[in-house]
Amino acid sequence: MKRKGLFIALTVSLLLIVAACSTQAPPAAEQVSPTTEAHPPTEAVMEVDKETLLAAFQAGGCGACHVIPGIPNAQGTLGPDLSIIGKLAANRIQATDYEGGAESNEEYLRESILEPNTYTVPECPGGPCGEGLMPPSGDLFSDVELEAIVDYLSALTGEEAAEVESVTSTTAGVNGPSLSDEEFARAKQIFFDRCAGCHGVLRNGATGPALTPDITLAKGTIALQAIIFNGTPRGMPDWGKQGVLSEADAEIMAKYIQNEPPQPPEMSLSQMLETWTVIIPPQDRPTEPQHDRDWQNFFSVTLRDAGQIAIIDGDTKEVVNIVETGYAVHISRMSATGRYVYTIGRDGKAVLIDLWMEKPDKVAEVQVCYDARSIEGSKYSGEEGNFFDKYTIVGCYWPPHFVILDGATLEPMKIVSTRSYTYDTEEYHPEPRVASIVASHFKPQWVVSVKETGQVWLVDYSDPLNPTIKMIEAELFLHDGGWESTGRYFLVAANARNKIVIIDVKDEELEAIVETGETPHPGRGANYIDPEYGPVWVTSHLGEGMLAVIGVDPEGHPLSAWRVVRNIDLPGAGSLFLKTHPASEWIWVDFTLNPDETLQRSVCVIAKENPTEVYKCWEVADYGRAVHFEYNMEGDEVWISIWGRIDAEKGKQGEIVIYDDKTLEEKARIFDLPTPTGKFNVYNTVEDIY
Ligand code: DHE
Predict the structure, then answer these.
(1) Which residues, 6 or more positions from 163, have their beta carbon under 8 angstroms from its beta carbon?
(2) Beta bridge partner(s), residue 490
(3) pLDDT (0 to 100) of residue 363
(4) Active-site position among 124, 195, 267, 604
(5) 494 and 475 Cβ atoms separated by less than 8 Å
(6) For this structure, is 401 an active site residue?
(7) pTM confidence score
(8) The sheet that has 371-377: what strands, in order across it?
(9) Alpha-carbon distance 57 to 70, whole Å?
(10) Distance between CA atoms of 100 and 96, rounded to whole angstroms?
(11) In the chain, N or C: fewer CB atoms in 10 Å?
(12) Is 314 left (phi over 0), alpha (psi -120 to 50) or beta?
């Protein structure tokens, strides 16, 4: 057999060559004791040249899909764990459903690489092993490499001596694969659009793993391309299968991330000011609403891939205006009076929309960073002054800073860097991104989650040019969160740590940290009165199909406060958002990132009076993904986005489906909205009702 080169007929299947070492597993009855320890084989057992062996595993990219002791970075979960494959192989040959021709362990392993579809293992670490995912992979290896792999794997029995010297990585000083200038520019843009949110601009990792060359080079182009194209069961989207990235794109991305990340630029106040535009100055704006609509029941709806916001009348369901906001608006928040909508896009552009205009439209805009996710107004009015609508804060991913702006004009006033030291090991972090921000009702303060250093900052805005900041040590990888119903406690997910952090804004301290399930993703969470445990706050999860219900009433229900009092099973993982309203009997939950197409476009409801199980689930549309909920002002209607594709035919780009919250019957659809995602009702967002 000759190495035919890494020919890139890279379809879904080729990408999974990485499973090149076997998708086969033993019948359940023959499982080997899980306590067996796995070690790399001894020198004597291996009897192969280490460099040849490492080159072989790299050529196949085996480690991206399999755990292989002794092979650097071989920690993949797409295919079966090969830690004790040398022991399991014999069992498999004898399995009743084994139909291959192998009679020895070596023959079985060779067959697994050359004809992997002879036998498919039922269970892989991240879920069922996909049938046919691993194509025949002989072409990827020379004869010597194939035999080196077979010998190495045969010797993995878990009984080898522990003091074995494992194969060392040879990536130090190695350059990544080369890209043309055009490919590099394209890869850089794709990384910003699709990858930086989870992996970080400098690729140090957060929600997703680190992607620096010391890690990626050892995996190799083919393995990385496989992951980029197919996704992983742990939440990496299947960009190729979704049709977002082509095979060629996946290949250049795989090469790009094996090179050092380019250093992105900083941004100064003068650069921000150059982008600042006041379209209608405050003195020229209306002093009262110029229309008869109930603007407090307006919805600000993100039309994500169109770079627009739709202002929709919640009473009539009419689209009152479509506002050009800029690239991929992420969220809207309302000023304290509700008159203004603040939006923030991924491009760091903030837009101010005046809902009192005859036709609500933008009145100011400014860019304060290159990458952002959060914005909030000043919501305190009390002894320390009335700060309603006075200031705005934007939280940036890059540069890692937040910016305080004038609330009525968006004039940038103050930049505060978040570069600092991690709360636990006190190591310098060059990219601590600003995740969620909420405005306290107790004090003139914003609660700012600083992701990579694991701190929650209480930023006093009463003197915005000289803000005092209390830095509370919390947990790494802070992301999204919201208030419990009294507004005293802020609950925020440390998502990659599977925890919810609780901050007491009245006493300005960390109240508790609660372990939940895999990758909690609450949005702002959901508050209800549990029949057994009193006031609770709920989060869903990306990594598992489960809601975690946390007791939040330390005075009335001290025994259940700050612990998970219930887990409610869901039909699948990949949930992004959940929602309820004090007037509602239900909690609604989506499954937007579940790999199953039916579940992606389904929602479930749980009855508050029986929160032990799901009450009902159903498909909301026959295309796209169902994402994010919002109630109308009364709390008797639920709005759900169907997130289609911007390049799809008319009728499949997206819509909003509205349900009667009492009967769970469909009430209306607002058709032909390009890629709607988040929806924010004015009244509910001002009052923090969820
Ligand atoms: Fe979001 C909230 C970050 C992907 C839609 N998202 C948030 C918040 C953060 C965040 C930090 C909290 C803001 C706040 O409350 O101040 N989101 C990120 C990411 O880093 C991530 C994972 C990847 C990325 O590159 O952006 C990401 N988010 C998405 C999406 O793919 C969604 C579904 C569509 C989109 O616009 O990209 C999406 N995120 C939302 C929405 C909210 C949100 C609708 C507000 C929910 C709410 O009810 O408050």
Answers:
(1) none
(2) 483, 503
(3) 98
(4) 195
(5) yes
(6) no
(7) 0.80
(8) 371-377, 391-398, 401-406, 412-417
(9) 11
(10) 11
(11) N
(12) alpha
541 is catalytic: no
- Could you tell me whether strands 391-398 and 401-406 are parallel, antiparallel, or unpaired per DSSP bridges? antiparallel
Fill in the DSSP letter of residue 193. Answer: I
Q: Which of 211, 329, 330 best tests ligand 1's pocket when mutated (most atoms within 8 Å of CB)? A: 330
Kindly state the tokens that stand for 174. 């190695």
Q: How far is the CA of 330 from the centre of ligand 1 (A)?
A: 6
pLDDT of residue 233 exceeding 80: no
Q: Which residue has the higher pLDDT, 505 or 125?
A: 505
CA 336–ligand 1 middle distance (angstroms): 22
Q: List pLDDT tens digits, range 640-684.
A: 999 999 999 999 999 999 999 999 999 999 999 999 999 999 999
**195 among known catalytic residues:** yes
**What one-letter code names the amino acid at 357?**
M
Tokens of 109: 């392993």
Residue in this structure with the two tokens 């040398």, named with its chain if needed: 86
SS (H, E, C) 612-660: CCCCEEEECCCCCEEEEEEECCCCCEEEEEEECCCCCCCCCCEEEEEEE
- Average pLDDT over all residues of the chain: 88
Residue 291 is a catalytic residue: no
Read off the amino acid at residue 591. Answer: F
User: Distance between terminal CA atoms of the chain?
Assistant: 63
DSSP letters of 481-518? EEE-TTSSEEEEEEGGGTEEEEEETTTTEEEEEEE-SS
Q: What is the DSSP letter of 541?
A: B
In the set 39, 330, 441, 479, the catalytic residue is 479
658: β partners: 639, 668
Better pLDDT: 316 or 114? 316
Q: Rounded CA gap, 71 and 636, in Å?
A: 57
Cα(574)–Cα(543) distance, integer angstroms: 6
- Amino acid found at 373: R
Taking CA atoms only, the protein residue closest to ligand 1 atom 15 is: 436
Q: Tokens for 678, please give them.
A: 């988040």
The type of residue at 393 is I
Please give the C-alpha separations between residue 614 and each of 168, 485, 521, 572, 604, in angstroms, as whole numbers. 49, 23, 18, 12, 7
Rounded CA separation 217/141 (Å): 19
Q: Distance, CA 445 to ligand 1 centroid (Å)?
A: 22
Ligand 1 within 6 A of 198 CB? yes
Cα of 447 to ligand 1 centre, how many Å? Answer: 17
At 132, is the pLDDT very low, low, confident or very high (cuts 50, 70, 90)?
low
Q: What is the pLDDT of residue 32?
A: 35
- Pick from 191, 373, 686 the residue to mutate for probing ligand 1's pocket: most ligand atoms within 8 Å of its CB: 373
Q: Is 479 a catalytic residue?
A: yes
Q: Is-catalytic flag, 272? A: no
Helices (H) and strands (E) in the chain, counts: 14, 39
Contacts of 242 (CB under 8 A, 6+ apart): none
The reported pLDDT for the residue numbered 399 is 97
Kindly state the tokens that stand for 40: 């790399």
CB 200 near ligand 1, within 6 Å: no
Cis previous bond, 399, omega within 30: yes
Per the rule left: phi > 0, alpha: psi between -120 and 50, beta: everything else, 651 is left
